[in-house]
Amino acid sequence: MARRPIALVTAAVLLVEAPAIVGLNAIMARFVEAQSMSLDGLDPDHMVTGTWALGIASGLALALCSLVALLTGLRDRRPGRLGRGLLIGCAVVHGLLGAVAVGLIGWGAFAFLMTVVGLIVLTLVVYGKEDADPAPAKAPAPAEA
Fold this sequence. Notes:
Elements: H1 3-35, H2 44-75, H3 81-104, H4 107-126
């Protein structure tokens, strides 16, 4: 199976998604700021700051997951424990966002998010547990006369 291309495509998709998430949160922060929106009496400035912080943190997390997938593809080795945890967390978040997006945005967003989930899971599966010491092949027993 083509392990490297799968990991590299996953890295590319996550890397493209990172600035898109930051940009989406920037748009939402501008809406909140322009309309002085408040949620249950919260200060709108705090909401703007929180939206920016969430966007930047999400973008950095996606970039980090992209780096893990990139290193996995370049080294052609499975990621370490922390890297696998990051990719699993990223897949879970994309799955939850997909469930929400299908109702709020539509099936196109759902399809994109499920494609990303599929790429991440496929990367994790193709670089699954590798045997450190494969069992030696048994030689056939000599024929007795």
